[in-house]
From TrEMBL:
Record's bilayer topology term: Peripheral membrane protein
Subcellular location: Golgi apparatus membrane
Keyword Membrane set for record: yes
Organism: Penicillium angulare
Keywords: Golgi apparatus, Membrane
InterPro entries reported for this sequence: Cog5 (IPR019465), COG5_helical (IPR048485), COG5_N (IPR049176)
Chain spans, region Disordered: 151-170, 350-375
GO BP, sorted A to Z: intra-Golgi vesicle-mediated transport
GO cellular component: Golgi membrane; Golgi transport complex
Name of the featured protein: Conserved oligomeric Golgi complex subunit 5
Superkingdom as given in the UniProt entry: Eukaryota
Main location: Golgi
Amino acid sequence: MSEGEPSYIDYEAFLDPEFSPAGFANTLVVSTNNATDTPLDLSTPLSRVLFDLQEIDTHIHSLTTRSALPLLSHTQGQTAAAEHILKETGTQITSVTQGYERLEKEVLQKWQAAEEARVAAENSLATVRLARSVARCLTLGRQLESQVAELTGRGSAQTTPTTMDGAAGTPVKEGFRALERAAITILNLRQMFSASSEEEEGFGLLRVKNMRTLRNELVIPAENMVKSRAQQTINRFSLSNSGATNGQSSMPSSYKQARDARSRLATAATTLYLLSPVPQGVITASNYKPELLISTLQGYMQTSIITSANALAKALSQLPSLDRALADISARCQDIVAVESILRGLRLPSHPLLSSPTTNDDQHTPDSENATSRPTNLLQSLLQALDTSSLPSYYWRSLASSLTNRVQEIVNRGGVSARTLRSNRDRLRNEIKDCVLRSSQVSATNHLAERGRPGTDTVVVGNWEREAAVMVGSVIGPLNR
Protein backbone atom coordinates (compact mmCIF):
# COMPACT_ATOMS: atom_id res chain seq x y z
CA MET A 1 0.00 0.00 0.00
CA SER A 2 1.45 3.36 -1.07
CA GLU A 3 2.04 6.21 1.29
CA GLY A 4 -1.22 8.07 1.90
CA GLU A 5 -3.33 5.10 0.74
CA PRO A 6 -6.08 4.33 3.31
CA SER A 7 -5.71 1.15 5.34
CA TYR A 8 -7.95 -0.36 7.97
CA ILE A 9 -4.90 -1.61 9.94
CA ASP A 10 -4.04 0.65 12.87
CA TYR A 11 -0.27 0.90 12.34
CA GLU A 12 0.03 3.49 15.10
CA ALA A 13 -1.28 0.98 17.65
CA PHE A 14 1.22 -1.64 16.50
CA LEU A 15 4.09 0.88 16.46
CA ASP A 16 3.27 2.25 19.91
CA PRO A 17 6.22 1.49 22.30
CA GLU A 18 3.68 0.49 24.94
CA PHE A 19 1.95 -2.04 22.61
CA SER A 20 0.88 -5.20 24.47
CA PRO A 21 0.11 -8.37 22.45
CA ALA A 22 -1.94 -9.79 25.34
CA GLY A 23 -4.00 -6.62 25.60
CA PHE A 24 -4.57 -6.50 21.83
CA ALA A 25 -5.68 -10.15 21.78
CA ASN A 26 -8.01 -9.56 24.71
CA THR A 27 -9.59 -6.61 22.88
CA LEU A 28 -10.25 -8.75 19.80
CA VAL A 29 -11.84 -11.54 21.81
CA VAL A 30 -14.05 -9.16 23.77
CA SER A 31 -15.17 -7.30 20.60
CA THR A 32 -16.19 -10.49 18.81
CA ASN A 33 -17.89 -12.30 21.73
CA ASN A 34 -20.34 -11.61 24.46
CA ALA A 35 -19.11 -11.73 28.00
CA THR A 36 -21.75 -14.35 28.89
CA ASP A 37 -20.98 -16.72 25.99
CA THR A 38 -19.75 -20.13 26.99
CA PRO A 39 -17.63 -21.34 25.37
CA LEU A 40 -16.01 -18.38 23.58
CA ASP A 41 -15.69 -18.29 19.81
CA LEU A 42 -12.01 -17.72 18.97
CA SER A 43 -12.23 -18.40 15.24
CA THR A 44 -13.32 -14.88 14.39
CA PRO A 45 -10.47 -13.12 16.32
CA LEU A 46 -7.99 -15.58 14.84
CA SER A 47 -9.21 -14.93 11.34
CA ARG A 48 -8.95 -11.21 11.99
CA VAL A 49 -5.29 -11.55 13.11
CA LEU A 50 -4.39 -13.80 10.14
CA PHE A 51 -6.04 -11.40 7.74
CA ASP A 52 -4.06 -8.51 9.26
CA LEU A 53 -0.84 -10.46 8.90
CA GLN A 54 -1.61 -11.24 5.28
CA GLU A 55 -2.36 -7.59 4.64
CA ILE A 56 0.87 -6.50 6.22
CA ASP A 57 2.86 -9.10 4.29
CA THR A 58 1.26 -7.91 1.05
CA HIS A 59 2.10 -4.35 1.94
CA ILE A 60 5.78 -5.28 2.65
CA HIS A 61 6.00 -7.22 -0.61
CA SER A 62 4.63 -4.26 -2.55
CA LEU A 63 7.08 -1.88 -0.94
CA THR A 64 10.14 -4.08 -1.56
CA THR A 65 9.10 -4.71 -5.15
CA ARG A 66 8.74 -1.02 -5.93
CA SER A 67 11.99 -0.10 -4.04
CA ALA A 68 14.22 -3.00 -5.20
CA LEU A 69 16.43 -0.92 -7.48
CA PRO A 70 17.10 1.87 -4.92
CA LEU A 71 17.84 -0.76 -2.26
CA LEU A 72 20.25 -2.62 -4.54
CA SER A 73 21.96 0.64 -5.56
CA HIS A 74 22.34 1.66 -1.91
CA THR A 75 23.69 -1.77 -0.95
CA GLN A 76 26.12 -1.70 -3.89
CA GLY A 77 27.37 1.71 -2.83
CA GLN A 78 27.88 0.57 0.75
CA THR A 79 29.73 -2.53 -0.43
CA ALA A 80 32.01 -0.50 -2.68
CA ALA A 81 32.74 1.95 0.09
CA ALA A 82 33.55 -0.91 2.47
CA GLU A 83 35.88 -2.50 -0.07
CA HIS A 84 37.64 0.83 -0.62
CA ILE A 85 38.07 1.32 3.13
CA LEU A 86 39.38 -2.23 3.49
CA LYS A 87 41.85 -1.71 0.66
CA GLU A 88 43.15 1.55 2.11
CA THR A 89 43.29 0.06 5.60
CA GLY A 90 45.23 -2.94 4.28
CA THR A 91 47.76 -0.61 2.67
CA GLN A 92 48.21 1.29 5.93
CA ILE A 93 48.50 -1.95 7.92
CA THR A 94 51.13 -3.23 5.50
CA SER A 95 53.07 0.04 5.87
CA VAL A 96 52.88 -0.08 9.67
CA THR A 97 53.93 -3.75 9.68
CA GLN A 98 56.92 -3.01 7.48
CA GLY A 99 57.88 -0.07 9.68
CA TYR A 100 57.66 -2.20 12.82
CA GLU A 101 59.76 -4.94 11.21
CA ARG A 102 62.36 -2.34 10.23
CA LEU A 103 62.36 -0.88 13.76
CA GLU A 104 62.58 -4.35 15.28
CA LYS A 105 65.55 -5.16 13.08
CA GLU A 106 67.33 -1.85 13.53
CA VAL A 107 66.46 -1.07 17.17
CA LEU A 108 64.88 -3.89 19.11
CA GLN A 109 67.30 -6.64 18.08
CA LYS A 110 70.27 -4.35 18.61
CA TRP A 111 68.85 -3.27 21.98
CA GLN A 112 68.41 -6.90 23.02
CA ALA A 113 72.00 -7.62 22.06
CA ALA A 114 73.15 -4.50 23.91
CA GLU A 115 71.06 -5.47 26.96
CA GLU A 116 72.64 -8.92 27.00
CA ALA A 117 76.07 -7.30 26.76
CA ARG A 118 75.18 -4.88 29.58
CA VAL A 119 73.98 -7.69 31.86
CA ALA A 120 77.07 -9.71 31.06
CA ALA A 121 79.29 -6.68 31.77
CA GLU A 122 77.53 -5.97 35.07
CA ASN A 123 77.84 -9.61 36.14
CA SER A 124 81.48 -9.65 35.11
CA LEU A 125 82.12 -6.43 37.02
CA ALA A 126 80.34 -7.80 40.11
CA THR A 127 82.40 -10.97 39.82
CA VAL A 128 85.62 -9.00 39.51
CA ARG A 129 84.69 -6.83 42.50
CA LEU A 130 83.77 -9.87 44.55
CA ALA A 131 86.98 -11.62 43.52
CA ARG A 132 89.02 -8.55 44.50
CA SER A 133 87.20 -8.37 47.82
CA VAL A 134 87.83 -12.07 48.42
CA ALA A 135 91.50 -11.61 47.55
CA ARG A 136 91.79 -8.61 49.90
CA CYS A 137 90.00 -10.52 52.66
CA LEU A 138 92.36 -13.44 52.22
CA THR A 139 95.32 -11.06 52.39
CA LEU A 140 93.92 -9.46 55.54
CA GLY A 141 93.20 -12.93 56.91
CA ARG A 142 96.80 -14.02 56.37
CA GLN A 143 97.95 -10.75 57.91
CA LEU A 144 95.67 -11.28 60.92
CA GLU A 145 96.86 -14.87 61.24
CA SER A 146 100.50 -13.75 61.38
CA GLN A 147 99.62 -11.03 63.90
CA VAL A 148 97.80 -13.55 66.09
CA ALA A 149 100.80 -15.87 65.85
CA GLU A 150 102.98 -12.93 66.82
CA LEU A 151 100.78 -12.24 69.84
CA THR A 152 100.74 -15.85 70.97
CA GLY A 153 104.46 -16.36 70.31
CA ARG A 154 103.97 -19.03 67.65
CA GLY A 155 105.22 -16.97 64.71
CA SER A 156 108.30 -15.00 63.85
CA ALA A 157 107.95 -13.07 67.10
CA GLN A 158 109.00 -16.24 68.92
CA THR A 159 112.49 -16.12 67.43
CA THR A 160 112.81 -12.34 67.91
CA PRO A 161 110.92 -11.60 71.14
CA THR A 162 112.11 -8.03 71.52
CA THR A 163 112.96 -5.10 69.28
CA MET A 164 114.50 -1.71 69.91
CA ASP A 165 112.23 1.30 69.94
CA GLY A 166 113.85 3.73 67.56
CA ALA A 167 112.66 6.83 69.41
CA ALA A 168 113.85 5.95 72.88
CA GLY A 169 116.08 2.95 72.40
CA THR A 170 113.83 0.90 74.67
CA PRO A 171 113.25 -2.80 74.05
CA VAL A 172 109.54 -3.53 73.70
CA LYS A 173 108.08 -6.97 73.11
CA GLU A 174 107.27 -7.21 69.42
CA GLY A 175 104.41 -9.59 70.05
CA PHE A 176 102.58 -7.04 72.14
CA ARG A 177 103.05 -4.37 69.51
CA ALA A 178 100.98 -6.52 67.14
CA LEU A 179 97.89 -5.98 69.34
CA GLU A 180 96.92 -2.63 67.84
CA ARG A 181 97.79 -3.74 64.32
CA ALA A 182 95.59 -6.81 64.76
CA ALA A 183 92.72 -4.57 65.91
CA ILE A 184 93.03 -2.43 62.75
CA THR A 185 93.06 -5.57 60.59
CA ILE A 186 89.94 -6.89 62.37
CA LEU A 187 88.16 -3.57 61.80
CA ASN A 188 89.00 -3.64 58.10
CA LEU A 189 87.61 -7.16 57.85
CA ARG A 190 84.53 -6.21 59.87
CA GLN A 191 83.92 -3.25 57.55
CA MET A 192 84.10 -5.50 54.49
CA PHE A 193 81.83 -8.14 55.99
CA SER A 194 79.20 -5.53 56.92
CA ALA A 195 79.00 -3.89 53.46
CA SER A 196 75.32 -3.36 52.63
CA SER A 197 75.37 -1.75 49.18
CA GLU A 198 76.97 -2.63 45.88
CA GLU A 199 79.09 0.52 45.96
CA GLU A 200 80.83 -0.61 49.17
CA GLU A 201 83.83 -2.88 49.03
CA GLY A 202 83.03 -6.38 50.20
CA PHE A 203 79.35 -6.44 49.20
CA GLY A 204 78.18 -10.06 49.01
CA LEU A 205 81.29 -11.51 50.66
CA LEU A 206 79.33 -13.70 53.05
CA ARG A 207 77.76 -15.51 50.09
CA VAL A 208 81.19 -17.08 49.56
CA LYS A 209 81.62 -20.14 51.76
CA ASN A 210 85.35 -19.54 52.29
CA MET A 211 84.62 -16.04 53.57
CA ARG A 212 82.08 -17.37 56.09
CA THR A 213 84.68 -19.88 57.21
CA LEU A 214 87.30 -17.12 57.47
CA ARG A 215 85.00 -15.00 59.62
CA ASN A 216 83.82 -17.80 61.90
CA GLU A 217 87.10 -19.66 62.35
CA LEU A 218 89.66 -16.83 62.28
CA VAL A 219 88.27 -13.31 62.58
CA ILE A 220 85.80 -13.83 65.44
CA PRO A 221 88.19 -15.96 67.58
CA ALA A 222 91.03 -13.51 66.86
CA GLU A 223 88.86 -10.55 67.87
CA ASN A 224 87.89 -12.26 71.13
CA MET A 225 91.54 -13.10 71.84
CA VAL A 226 92.72 -9.54 71.11
CA LYS A 227 89.98 -8.09 73.34
CA SER A 228 90.89 -10.52 76.12
CA ARG A 229 94.62 -9.69 75.88
CA ALA A 230 93.94 -5.96 75.97
CA GLN A 231 91.56 -6.26 78.93
CA GLN A 232 94.04 -8.43 80.84
CA THR A 233 96.77 -5.87 80.20
CA ILE A 234 94.66 -3.06 81.65
CA ASN A 235 93.45 -5.14 84.60
CA ARG A 236 97.03 -6.17 85.47
CA PHE A 237 98.60 -2.76 84.93
CA SER A 238 100.90 -1.70 87.76
CA LEU A 239 104.03 0.42 87.96
CA SER A 240 104.91 -0.94 91.39
CA ASN A 241 105.82 -4.39 92.67
CA SER A 242 103.39 -6.31 94.83
CA GLY A 243 105.48 -5.92 97.98
CA ALA A 244 106.36 -2.85 100.03
CA THR A 245 109.24 -2.16 102.44
CA ASN A 246 109.71 0.37 105.21
CA GLY A 247 106.31 1.90 104.65
CA GLN A 248 107.19 2.96 101.08
CA SER A 249 105.73 1.46 97.96
CA SER A 250 108.16 -0.50 95.88
CA MET A 251 108.79 0.98 92.41
CA PRO A 252 109.83 -0.68 89.15
CA SER A 253 113.44 -1.65 89.12
CA SER A 254 114.28 0.41 86.04
CA TYR A 255 113.16 3.02 83.62
CA LYS A 256 112.84 0.25 81.01
CA GLN A 257 110.10 -1.50 82.99
CA ALA A 258 108.13 1.70 83.47
CA ARG A 259 108.40 2.53 79.80
CA ASP A 260 107.34 -0.98 78.83
CA ALA A 261 104.35 -0.93 81.20
CA ARG A 262 103.17 2.43 79.86
CA SER A 263 103.58 1.25 76.29
CA ARG A 264 101.52 -1.85 77.03
CA LEU A 265 98.71 0.12 78.65
CA ALA A 266 98.61 2.67 75.82
CA THR A 267 98.45 -0.09 73.21
CA ALA A 268 95.74 -1.98 75.12
CA ALA A 269 93.63 1.18 75.56
CA THR A 270 93.92 2.05 71.87
CA THR A 271 93.01 -1.52 70.94
CA LEU A 272 89.86 -1.53 73.09
CA TYR A 273 88.90 1.88 71.70
CA LEU A 274 89.11 0.50 68.17
CA LEU A 275 87.27 -2.75 68.94
CA SER A 276 84.42 -1.14 70.89
CA PRO A 277 81.11 -1.63 69.03
CA VAL A 278 80.00 1.26 66.84
CA PRO A 279 76.26 1.92 67.36
CA GLN A 280 74.00 2.47 64.37
CA GLY A 281 74.03 6.13 63.33
CA VAL A 282 77.37 7.02 64.94
CA ILE A 283 79.55 8.32 62.11
CA THR A 284 82.10 10.63 63.77
CA ALA A 285 84.63 10.19 66.54
CA SER A 286 83.14 13.15 68.45
CA ASN A 287 79.91 11.29 69.36
CA TYR A 288 81.45 7.81 69.62
CA LYS A 289 81.52 6.18 73.05
CA PRO A 290 84.09 3.36 73.34
CA GLU A 291 81.99 1.20 75.65
CA LEU A 292 84.48 -1.68 75.74
CA LEU A 293 87.34 0.58 76.80
CA ILE A 294 85.22 2.48 79.32
CA SER A 295 83.81 -0.68 80.93
CA THR A 296 87.29 -2.21 81.22
CA LEU A 297 88.75 0.91 82.83
CA GLN A 298 85.75 1.17 85.16
CA GLY A 299 86.35 -2.43 86.16
CA TYR A 300 90.02 -1.62 86.83
CA MET A 301 89.00 1.32 89.03
CA GLN A 302 86.41 -0.70 90.93
CA THR A 303 88.87 -3.55 91.50
CA SER A 304 91.44 -1.10 92.90
CA ILE A 305 88.84 0.54 95.14
CA ILE A 306 87.41 -2.74 96.46
CA THR A 307 90.84 -4.29 97.04
CA SER A 308 92.09 -1.16 98.81
CA ALA A 309 88.95 -0.94 100.94
CA ASN A 310 89.28 -4.59 102.00
CA ALA A 311 92.97 -4.22 102.80
CA LEU A 312 92.50 -1.03 104.81
CA ALA A 313 89.46 -2.39 106.68
CA LYS A 314 91.46 -5.48 107.63
CA ALA A 315 94.44 -3.32 108.66
CA LEU A 316 92.23 -1.15 110.87
CA SER A 317 91.17 -4.22 112.79
CA GLN A 318 94.85 -5.30 112.98
CA LEU A 319 96.88 -2.11 113.33
CA PRO A 320 100.33 -3.75 113.04
CA SER A 321 99.60 -4.36 109.34
CA LEU A 322 98.45 -0.77 108.71
CA ASP A 323 101.77 0.46 107.29
CA ARG A 324 101.87 -2.27 104.68
CA ALA A 325 98.21 -1.71 103.74
CA LEU A 326 98.73 2.04 103.37
CA ALA A 327 101.82 1.44 101.25
CA ASP A 328 99.80 -0.86 99.00
CA ILE A 329 96.97 1.70 98.75
CA SER A 330 99.47 4.43 97.90
CA ALA A 331 100.97 2.25 95.18
CA ARG A 332 97.53 1.60 93.69
CA CYS A 333 96.80 5.32 93.65
CA GLN A 334 100.09 5.95 91.87
CA ASP A 335 99.08 3.35 89.30
CA ILE A 336 95.81 5.23 88.79
CA VAL A 337 97.75 8.49 88.43
CA ALA A 338 99.85 6.80 85.77
CA VAL A 339 96.71 5.51 83.99
CA GLU A 340 95.25 9.01 83.96
CA SER A 341 98.49 10.46 82.61
CA ILE A 342 98.74 7.84 79.87
CA LEU A 343 95.12 8.21 78.79
CA ARG A 344 95.40 12.00 78.75
CA GLY A 345 98.38 11.74 76.43
CA LEU A 346 96.61 9.39 74.01
CA ARG A 347 94.75 11.30 71.33
CA LEU A 348 91.79 9.66 69.67
CA PRO A 349 93.20 7.12 67.21
CA SER A 350 92.06 7.04 63.61
CA HIS A 351 89.08 4.69 63.42
CA PRO A 352 88.42 2.98 60.05
CA LEU A 353 84.65 2.98 60.65
CA LEU A 354 84.41 6.62 61.79
CA SER A 355 85.07 9.93 60.12
CA SER A 356 87.55 12.16 61.93
CA PRO A 357 86.07 15.29 63.52
CA THR A 358 87.38 18.67 62.44
CA THR A 359 90.04 19.84 64.85
CA ASN A 360 91.03 23.20 63.39
CA ASP A 361 89.02 25.09 65.97
CA ASP A 362 90.04 22.90 68.89
CA GLN A 363 93.36 24.73 69.33
CA HIS A 364 91.48 27.89 70.30
CA THR A 365 88.79 26.21 72.42
CA PRO A 366 89.10 26.07 76.24
CA ASP A 367 89.92 22.67 77.73
CA SER A 368 86.70 22.65 79.75
CA GLU A 369 84.61 23.05 76.62
CA ASN A 370 86.51 20.27 74.85
CA ALA A 371 86.02 17.96 77.82
CA THR A 372 82.26 18.33 77.70
CA SER A 373 81.58 18.66 73.98
CA ARG A 374 84.28 17.04 71.86
CA PRO A 375 86.69 14.51 73.42
CA THR A 376 90.23 14.79 72.10
CA ASN A 377 91.87 12.03 74.14
CA LEU A 378 90.96 8.67 75.66
CA LEU A 379 90.67 10.06 79.20
CA GLN A 380 87.72 12.38 78.67
CA SER A 381 85.20 9.65 77.83
CA LEU A 382 86.14 7.79 81.02
CA LEU A 383 85.86 10.93 83.15
CA GLN A 384 82.42 11.60 81.68
CA ALA A 385 81.31 8.02 82.40
CA LEU A 386 82.54 8.24 86.02
CA ASP A 387 81.22 11.81 86.41
CA THR A 388 84.47 13.07 87.87
CA SER A 389 87.25 15.45 86.95
CA SER A 390 90.14 13.25 88.13
CA LEU A 391 90.72 9.51 88.49
CA PRO A 392 92.77 9.80 91.74
CA SER A 393 90.07 12.02 93.24
CA TYR A 394 87.43 9.44 92.25
CA TYR A 395 89.59 6.70 93.77
CA TRP A 396 90.03 8.42 97.14
CA ARG A 397 86.42 9.60 97.43
CA SER A 398 85.02 6.18 96.48
CA LEU A 399 87.42 4.52 98.91
CA ALA A 400 86.39 6.93 101.66
CA SER A 401 82.67 6.34 101.05
CA SER A 402 83.13 2.57 101.46
CA LEU A 403 85.33 2.89 104.58
CA THR A 404 82.91 4.79 106.80
CA ASN A 405 80.52 1.86 107.27
CA ARG A 406 83.37 -0.59 107.83
CA VAL A 407 84.95 1.55 110.52
CA GLN A 408 81.52 1.97 112.10
CA GLU A 409 81.11 -1.82 112.17
CA ILE A 410 84.45 -2.19 113.97
CA VAL A 411 83.41 0.44 116.52
CA ASN A 412 80.00 -1.15 117.00
CA ARG A 413 81.54 -4.57 117.64
CA GLY A 414 83.72 -3.03 120.35
CA GLY A 415 86.51 -5.04 121.90
CA VAL A 416 90.26 -4.62 121.54
CA SER A 417 90.11 -3.45 117.90
CA ALA A 418 87.73 -0.60 118.68
CA ARG A 419 89.71 0.50 121.74
CA THR A 420 92.94 0.35 119.79
CA LEU A 421 91.50 2.52 117.04
CA ARG A 422 90.18 5.10 119.49
CA SER A 423 93.48 5.28 121.33
CA ASN A 424 95.42 5.71 118.06
CA ARG A 425 93.30 8.44 116.51
CA ASP A 426 96.19 10.84 116.06
CA ARG A 427 98.41 8.19 114.53
CA LEU A 428 95.66 7.13 112.12
CA ARG A 429 95.00 10.74 111.14
CA ASN A 430 98.65 11.42 110.38
CA GLU A 431 99.37 8.14 108.59
CA ILE A 432 96.27 8.29 106.40
CA LYS A 433 97.00 11.88 105.49
CA ASP A 434 100.64 11.03 104.75
CA CYS A 435 99.47 8.09 102.63
CA VAL A 436 97.26 10.30 100.46
CA LEU A 437 99.90 12.99 100.09
CA ARG A 438 102.63 10.42 99.49
CA SER A 439 100.60 9.04 96.59
CA SER A 440 101.04 12.37 94.81
CA GLN A 441 104.82 11.87 94.77
CA VAL A 442 105.33 9.59 91.81
CA SER A 443 108.78 8.32 91.02
CA ALA A 444 110.39 10.36 88.28
CA THR A 445 111.39 7.09 86.65
CA ASN A 446 107.70 6.43 86.10
CA HIS A 447 106.66 10.03 85.50
CA LEU A 448 109.32 10.73 82.91
CA ALA A 449 109.17 7.38 81.17
CA GLU A 450 106.62 8.78 78.75
CA ARG A 451 108.98 11.66 77.95
CA GLY A 452 111.81 9.39 76.85
CA ARG A 453 114.39 10.09 79.56
CA PRO A 454 115.08 8.35 82.89
CA GLY A 455 114.97 9.96 86.30
CA THR A 456 115.52 9.01 89.94
CA ASP A 457 113.79 11.70 92.02
CA THR A 458 110.11 12.09 92.88
CA VAL A 459 107.68 14.38 91.10
CA VAL A 460 104.55 15.88 92.68
CA VAL A 461 101.58 15.38 90.32
CA GLY A 462 98.82 17.19 92.21
CA ASN A 463 97.54 18.79 95.40
CA TRP A 464 95.35 16.29 97.23
CA GLU A 465 94.65 18.07 100.51
CA ARG A 466 90.89 17.71 100.01
CA GLU A 467 91.17 14.00 99.27
CA ALA A 468 93.34 13.61 102.38
CA ALA A 469 90.69 15.38 104.48
CA VAL A 470 87.95 13.14 103.06
CA MET A 471 89.95 9.98 103.80
CA VAL A 472 90.80 11.11 107.33
CA GLY A 473 87.16 12.00 107.96
CA SER A 474 85.92 8.61 106.76
CA VAL A 475 88.09 6.83 109.37
CA ILE A 476 88.30 9.31 112.24
CA GLY A 477 84.67 10.48 111.98
CA PRO A 478 83.11 7.21 113.30
CA LEU A 479 85.73 7.09 116.11
CA ASN A 480 84.61 10.47 117.45
CA ARG A 481 80.95 9.51 117.73
